[in-house]
Write a structure and sequence with these properties.
With about 425 residues, the protein is an alpha+beta fold. It is built from nine helices and 20 strands. Strand 11 and strand 12 form a beta hairpin. The chain is globular and about 80 Å long.
């Protein structure tokens, strides 16, 4: 007796940075035929015959339905959080793998570990050293545990290079990039283990660790799904690893809870600035940290939880002139308004929420001070001009650094003539 099954699955969960994520998957007789997910919310066909079976108008209607379902399920998610009596705390531990062709056609590997949306380890070619990316992580792992992670990264590189070649032998088009994600979402009521593979930016395979079954997300993945269904030892190893992530998430939470007290830097202040480069979308993103002591403090800029660690320029700590010191980190990056940029240190985070030049969000306040300046004429002009404009002494270094910007220089020089006549007592030239 023939039986046909049509099923729609919806998932809502916290993604990087704590943002809610939505996914809708439509299956016909066990095969994925449509998939729609944040942030695009486009319900894309996953089988060739499906593309030909729907008109363009019918496909557009599915996109709108997906947006409606996203809104409805976000509302249901919040309602359930308000209703349930058990703990709503959710912990997510996720490992992302990427294989792609680098310069000269050589295969490159990257492994990124995220805990609750924040990158805690990264490992990549050619060093294959799984480096901590959070201060508490460095303190929470022994040297022996860190060395073990380096070896695991080398092993994963070998395994994923082999999988990349296997997939290339199976599909008709060349695989330029392989992406894989393994993870566990857990709370007080249970756990959910997931595994997804993608090729060339498209969903390719998913693995159900409970059923030990693979599901093809596109037609070309069907032969490999069938073959891997028969890989008994491999599938049990993947199931074990996925379940171990749930245990590791609990251990990480305990380690994080037991990290050293942050009370030594309760007065620490963070600032984040953006300075667009004319003629494009590239900007300088700069993070400032200020305290009476910055011993043992480091800062990083992140994009959706991933550290911006290429081309980083750090200055300081430098004295501010009021007993505090300041340290700055700057990167040059292409700004994407759909992403969240943060300046992070071990106990505070500040979000860059406005792409306008020199926009900053400040935790804490910086009292203005009166400055007595002993310097040459240009430096004097900048410093006095900043005082007249009401800028804080902690921002003077930043303005001086950007003095090449014509608008700032013009304002400072215009104010200089008036100030020099009004406050001669401030002028002291070196002997």
């Amino acid at each position: 007796m023939d039986v046909d099954t049509l099923e729609v699955q919806y998932t809502v969960h916290h993604g990087p940075g704590g943002k809610l994520q939505f996914q809708q998957t439509t299956l016909f007789n066990g095969h994925v035929i449509f998939a729609c997910s944040s942030p695009t919310l486009r319900d894309q066909p996953r089988q060739h015959w499906v593309t030909n079976a729907f008109t363009q108008e019918g496909l557009e209607e599915r996109h709108e339905q997906c947006k409606h379902q996203c809104y409805e399920h976000f509302a249901s998610f919040e309602k359930i959080k308000q209703t349930i009596t058990v703990s709503a705390d959710v912990d997510t531990l996720e490992v992302q793998y990427t294989v792609h062709h680098g310069p000269g056609g050589n295969l490159q590997f990257q492994q990124t570990t995220l805990f609750n949306g924040h990158v805690i380890f990264t490992c990549s070619s050619p060093t294959l050293r799984d480096q901590p990316r959070q201060h508490w992580v460095t303190n929470a792992f022994t040297q022996e545990e860190l060395e073990e992670r380096h070896e695991q990264c080398k092993y994963q590189r070998h395994e994923h290079f082999a999988s990349f070649e296997k997939i290339n032998q199976t599909i008709t088009v060349s695989a330029d990039i392989l992406q894989r994600c393994q993870g566990c979402i857990s709370n007080s009521t249970g756990k959910f283990v997931f595994e997804k593979w993608g090729v060339n930016g498209e969903d390719f395979l998913t693995f159900d660790p409970d059923a030990l079954k693979w599901t093809a997300q596109i037609d070309e993945a069907n032969p490999l799904a069938t073959e891997w269904d028969g890989e008994y030892h491999m599938n049990h190893a993947y199931k074990y690893f996925g379940n171990s992530l749930c245990d590791k998430a609990h251990i990480l939470k305990m380690k994080q809870a037991g990290r050293p007290s942050d009370g030594a830097h309760t007065g620490l202040e963070l600032h984040i600035f953006g300075k667009p480069i004319p003629g494009g979308t590239v900007s300088y993103l700069q993070c400032h940290v200020t305290d009476y002591s910055l011993s043992g403090v480091s800062i990083q800029l992140t994009k959706d939880g991933v550290p911006l660690d290429h081309g980083v320029h750090q200055t300081g700590p430098r004295p501010n002139g009021d007993g505090t010191v300041q340290m700055r980190v700057q990167v040059k990056t292409t700004m994407d308004n759909s992403k969240t940029y943060r300046c992070e240190t071990f106990n505070k985070t500040v979000v860059f929420d406005n792409p306008s030049p020199r926009q900053n969000t400040v935790i804490g306040t910086v009292p203005p001070v009166i400055v007595t300046v002993t310097c040459y004429m240009m430096c004097l002009g900048v410093m006095i001009g900043c005082h007249v404009l009401g800028l804080h002494v902690k921002e003077v270094a930043t303005v001086a650094e950007g003095a090449a910007v014509s608008a700032a220089v013009a304002t400072v020089l215009a104010a200089l003539a008036t100030v020099l006549a009004a406050v001669p007592a401030l002028i002291k030239f070196p002997n």
